[in-house]
């Protein structure tokens, strides 16, 4: 009896220790996808412990955040559904299209006080458990028309400090979705010391995706795990290098969550470039035809005006389910017959290629999610955050990463 009890206690403390180490299992819920196939009822709540409602946009009015692009009417139900499943409900503020007024909102002490009050009021109004700042990006232009200042990073830190001085602000989970380099300092370089942020943020979620895409010079991995043994020109960033950079700048690894992608980017690649000459083996980093951006899945932007009122070309994005819809993958998430496949061992991400349509996609699958989960666990990171919950198919990706991160 006693040895069994001891064994149970050891097992119990092991489970507690590991769950303490990798406690964030999160995803973003995109409100604008509720009416196109991913309603709240489709969320597999039991797979997660945190969900970020995306996005509340910054506005020119310091007293309001806008849910215009993400269906405000859903947020109360989102919060009650999350709570019914024991999941923390957070609001993600900003995003690619919603970061226009971040800089001006934090520019002065007066603005920070008002903006902090707006955020706290919003948290109280919707009974939220946390705020995920998704400022893309402090002192680094994102969509093209963001307000921007060389003091953005310092002012952002001041805003977070104001929030933490509030008793409500001190009690919620505050995180930030960040790029693969530490916040840009006033000289435009990655900050060498982000330890101040570590004091006021529960964690950062590194957006290790969109590393390669239509803007790149060749096809490359959307969400590389590693790039240290790629040639130097192919080292555009990865989870490994990003975590090292943030950690070196003073963000403890157990306050780093890895952002993972339930989608991929497509490229138009001629068969003569796609294959290693004389074989049917897919080539690494092939050239692609920029003038022929393939259309992505049913959620792809087919060309529209962005938040800056500038025309945006089709993105060519395939969600994981979109690759199944598009004939690249089977319903089990494996390569469909007639499709060429390559798993890149450096980036630990897969590629698929349809020779007839000449479309190549760099994406993530169960194998790459397992590799990322293993890295999260081994490196002692805080967990993962997936863009976006609605990208998965039958929980294939989330089950793969949950099998190693819990
Ligand atoms: C949100 O939509 C309302 C109604 O269409 C409009 O009056 C308001 O200006 C919009 N707010 C933002 C920030 O776009
Ligand atoms: C403070 O916020 C207001 C309202 O958004 C804005 O008009 C003003 O420019 C901001 N101050 C600074 C210095 O950016
Ligand atoms: C990244 O690649 C280097 C080799 O360049 C290797 O030593 C390291 O273990 C790799 N890390 C991961 C997490 O794959
Ligand atoms: C490859 O693309 C062609 C042309 O679009 C399409 O007819 C075919 O079904 C695709 N192959 C697979 C396996 O989906």
UniProtKB/TrEMBL annotation:
Pfam family, one: Glyco_hydro_18
SMART domains listed in its UniProt record: Glyco_18
Protein's GO biological process: chitin catabolic process; polysaccharide catabolic process
Reactions that this protein is recorded to catalyse: Random endo-hydrolysis of N-acetyl-beta-D-glucosaminide (1->4)-beta-linkages in chitin and chitodextrins
Coiled coil ranges: none
Signal keyword on record: yes
Family annotation (SUPFAM superfamilies): (Trans)glycosidases (SSF51445)
Keyword Manganese: no
Gene3D superfamilies: 3.10.50.10, Glycosidases
GO molecular function, one term: endochitinase activity
Keywords: Carbohydrate metabolism, Chitin degradation, Glycosidase, Hydrolase, Polysaccharide degradation, Signal
GO cellular component terms listed in the entry, alphabetical order: extracellular region
Domain GH18: 23-406
Signal peptide (residue range): 1-20
InterPro entries: Chitinase_II/V-like_cat, Chitinase_insertion_sf, GH, Glyco_hydro18_cat, Glyco_hydro_18_chit_AS, Glycosyl_Hydrlase_18
Family stated for the protein in its record: Belongs to the glycosyl hydrolase 18 family.
Name of protein: Glycoside hydrolase family 18 protein
């Amino acid at each position: 009896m006693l040895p069994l009890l001891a064994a149970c206690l050891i097992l119990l403390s092991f489970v507690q220790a590991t769950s303490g180490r990798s406690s964030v299992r999160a995803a973003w819920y995109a409100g604008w996808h509720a009416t196109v196939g991913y309603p709240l009822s489709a969320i597999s709540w039991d797979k997660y412990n945190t969900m970020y409602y995306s996005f509340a946009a910054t506005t020119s009015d310091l007293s309001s955040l806008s849910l215009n692009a993400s269906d405000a009417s859903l947020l109360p139900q989102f919060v009650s559904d999350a709570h019914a499943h024991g999941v923390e409900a957070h609001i993600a503020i900003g995003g690619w299209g919603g970061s226009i007024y971040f800089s001006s909102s934090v520019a002065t002490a007066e603005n920070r006080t008002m903006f902090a009050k707006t955020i706290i009021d919003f948290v109280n109004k919707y009974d939220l458990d946390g705020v995920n700042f998704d400022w893309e990006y402090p002192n680094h232009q994102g969509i093209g028309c963001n307000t921007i200042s060389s003091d953005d990073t310092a002012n952002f830190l001041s805003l977070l400090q104001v929030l933490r001085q509030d008793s409500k602000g001190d009690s919620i989970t505050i995180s930030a979705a960040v790029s693969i380099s530490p916040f840009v300092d006033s000289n435009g370089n990655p900050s060498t010391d982000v330890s101040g942020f570590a004091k006021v943020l529960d964690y950062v979620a590194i957006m290790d995706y969109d590393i390669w895409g239509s803007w790149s010079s060749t096809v490359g991995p959307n969400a590389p795990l590693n790039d240290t043994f790629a040639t130097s020109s192919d080292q555009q960033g990865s989870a490994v290098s990003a975590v090292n950079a943030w950690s070196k700048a003073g963000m403890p690894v157990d306050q780093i969550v890895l952002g993972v992608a339930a989608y991929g980017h497509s490229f138009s690649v001629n068969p003569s470039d796609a294959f290693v000459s004389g074989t049917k083996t897919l080539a690494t980093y092939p050239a692609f035809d920029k003038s022929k951006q393939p259309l992505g899945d049913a959620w792809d932007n087919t060309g529209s005006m962005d938040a800056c009122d500038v025309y945006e070309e089709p993105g060519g994005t395939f969600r994981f389910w979109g690759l199944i819809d598009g004939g690249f993958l089977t319903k089990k998430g494996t390569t469909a017959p007639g499709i060429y496949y390559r798993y890149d061992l450096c980036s630990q991400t897969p590629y698929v290629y349809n020779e007839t349509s000449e479309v190549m996609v760099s994406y993530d699958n169960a194998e790459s999610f397992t590799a990322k989960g293993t890295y999260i666990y081994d490196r002692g990171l805080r967990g993962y955050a997936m863009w976006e919950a609605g990208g998965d198919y039958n929980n294939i990706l989330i089950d793969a990463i949950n099998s190693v991160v819990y």
